[in-house]
Amino acid sequence: LGNKLQDILEKVGHEKALTEDQVKATMREIRMALLEADVNFGVAKDFVAKVSAQAVGQKLSGSLDAGQTVIKLVHDELVEMLGGDKAEPTLVEGGRNVWFMVGLQGAGKTTSTGKLASLYKKQGKRILLVAADTQRPAARDQLEVLARQVGVPVLKVEDGEAPSSIRSRIDAQLAQQPADLVIVDTAGRLQIDEALMGELAALSGELKPTETLLVVDAMTGQEALNVARAFDERVRVSGLIMTKLDGDARGGAALSARSVTGKPIYFAGVSEKLSGLEPFYPDRIAGRILGMGDVMGLIERAEQADIKAMDAKKAGEFDLDDLLLQLRQIRRMGPIADLIKLIPGMSRALPEGFTIEDKQIQRIDAMISAMTLEERRNPKIVGASRRERIARGSGHDVQDVNKLLKMHEQMKEMMKMLQKMSEGEAACLCPR
Ligand code: GDP
Ligand code: MG
């Protein structure tokens, strides 16, 4: 943030501890963000209650204001809940490794099976894939195609084949052609259904998988909770794979599935291609769930920026030179829109589509530089003829100058709001 913004923000109770009101104001925003990200309602509620309890009374840290401090707490707690550091499924060297892929139809089981085969083959593992959808031949063919692409053997079950028969055929195949890892792709249904669950439980009982990986489509939204619970109850899930994170789903399903099973999220599916499987990074998803990108990175940048003090009382007198100074500082830090979103409620308080890009800052710089000292101090005197002169002098259109003056007005309003906030009126800038 520019120095004025930062300075004003810092005054939101600098040495003080977070008050209940401050926490509440930000938590409203957080709860909205969680629900918008499709986190299950109950999970969001519990989460907010838990973090709120932790946050109240917490000391404000360094240069972060109340809102940022709460967001940092929320973010850290989200990362923690999503699993902290990245985890990997267990693959015992020289041991028996059987991974069982389960999930709803269309979740991405078959695709993920192919991706895992590709990933572990690259690591030098010998793989055997098992196409164990006992009802849909097309599903088995789909895995066969992937197996051929990866270059690993595949064993296809027969329609309605019994679990014991499947097991003995896998054993026979392994006796002929040993493998370090057997990955079993199973049938899915569009919804949780007892017949399927019974079938999966029977096959699982027979094959005794060392990992049972529940594949969850990130777009599942609210349902992710019930899906994860149902599968975990019947086949004891050991880990999760979140697919389709390349789409625009915000990832709330990850939090829901994780919180109900307590199992690690091992991988993220990020494309339809065989290469589209990545380790799951909790901090990325946390930022995404909050709708704030890489929150901590941005907060750090704001902290590191060269920040000088400014008299907050001057906010009402914010002139074009101040604007220019701010923008030049912001340029060194990155996209202003990202930084501004760090302030709870700010994205909503700003006009629709408010963004400032680097090029825009250069243009604004040129226009302000073409103004007289008096014009910069008192933009109100900049009428039609002056606007024309400034436009010509800086190589821009009159419309650009109009836009600049309008933006300055908006920034000035923002400053006033921030100042009110600094005076302890509210830590939330939600429009009243
Ligand atoms: P299954 O029914 O669970 O076996 O699901 P599939 O593996 O057949 O996948 C269903 C659809 O989702 C297919 O069109 C896949 O290409 C697609 N898909 C799976 N994983 C991903 C992913 O991570 N990203 C994207 N964009 N598509 C995926
Ligand atoms: Mg499938």
What does this structure look like?
- The protein has 2 domains: 209 residues, 434 Repressor (Amino-terminal Domain) (Orthogonal Bundle), CATH 1.10.260.30; 183 residues, Rossmann fold, CATH 3.40.50.
- 53% of the residues lie in helices and 9% in strands.
- The chain has 432 residues and is of the alpha/beta class.
- It has an 8-stranded mixed beta sheet, sandwiched between helices.
- A hairpin with a 7-residue loop joins strand 7 and strand 8.
- It contains 19 helices and 8 strands.
- Magnesium ion (MG) binds next to helix 5.
Order of helix and strand elements from N to C terminus: HHHHEHEHEHEHEHEHEEHHHHHHHHH
- In the CATH hierarchy, the third-tier topology of the largest domain is known as 434 Repressor (Amino-terminal Domain)
Number of helices: 19
The small molecules bound here are:
guanosine-5'-diphosphate, magnesium ion
What fraction of the residues are assigned to beta strands by DSSP?
A: 5-15%
Q: What strand line-up does the widest sheet have?
A: 3-2-4-1-5-6-7-8
Strand tally: 8
Keywords: Cytoplasm, GTP-binding, Hydrolase, Nucleotide-binding, Ribonucleoprotein, RNA-binding, Signal recognition particle
Subcellular location: Cytoplasm
EC number: 3.6.5.4
Domain SRP54-type proteins GTP-binding: 264-277
Strand and helix map with partners:
Elements: H1 3-10, H2 20-36, H3 41-55, H4 66-82, E1 98-102, H5 109-122, E2 127-132, H6 137-150, E3 154-156, H7 163-176, E4 181-186, H8 194-207, E5 211-217, H9 224-235, E6 239-243, H10 252-261, E7 265-269, E8 277-279, H11 282-290, H12 295-304, H13 320-333, H14 336-340, H15 346-349, H16 358-369, H17 373-377, H18 384-394, H19 398-422
Helix pairs in contact: 1-19, 2-3, 2-4, 3-4, 4-11, 5-6, 7-8, 9-10, 13-16, 16-18, 18-19
The protein binds guanosine-5'-diphosphate (GDP) and magnesium ion.
